[in-house]
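Aim 2, interim progress: modelling of the zinc ion-bound target.
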Amino acid sequence: MADSLRSLFENTSNDPRSLHRLRERIAQIVSDTIARGEDPGANLSLEQSRSLIESLPRLSEDQIRDLGHHDSLCPICYTPFAAILAEEETALAIDDFAVDEELGVTKLAAPWQCGHVFCRRDISKWIRGGHGSCPMCRRTLLESSTSDSSDPASTQEPATSPQDAELLTQIRTYMEELFSNGAVAYVDHDGDFRGFGDPIYVPEGGYDDDRSEFSGMYS
Ligand SMILES: [Zn+2]
Ligand SMILES: [Zn+2]
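Predicted structure of the complex, ligand included:
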């Protein structure tokens, strides 16, 4: 696994599509690894998972900063939240009506939930897969009548084998390396970080004045 992981990163370029594929692949590997340690109790119905996904809030940059997570990575795709926010911002700048419900960062925010923070894409996919508990702490996602689930002490760390733990550490190291590389960023007119890929110029006020360079994306 270590070798195939290394080649996965070696075969990733700074092209945004290549990085996007890498992120999807990492999220899949991490989700599968986490699911192996899951208590096979809760299987969500389609209706339950749909309403859970609909209830996920979209966090603002300020909210994420207030939570102390501005410099954190999504615990599933190991992408920095700052990069995920930049991706959301860029998508909205390209298309004001972008309603991709999987953009941005969210939190398991209901009173009975644990408060763990994820990119919306990964936690939505996890819930759509029928998982009824948080991938990080196993606390139930559903409101329960038993006092048990509302007791924070009932949460527990997932049982991860030493091999899996090492795999996750390795992925984290590779991803941190990737994102600490200055080439992996969009920059705007002020040189601020905007997202994945080789540095490109983002005009002030977004893309509204000149969509021609993106016309290929819509054809
Ligand atoms: Zn993620
Ligand atoms: Zn949790």
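Confidence is low (pLDDT under 50) at residues 147-153, 182-194, 198-203, 207-219. The longest helix spans residues 16-36.
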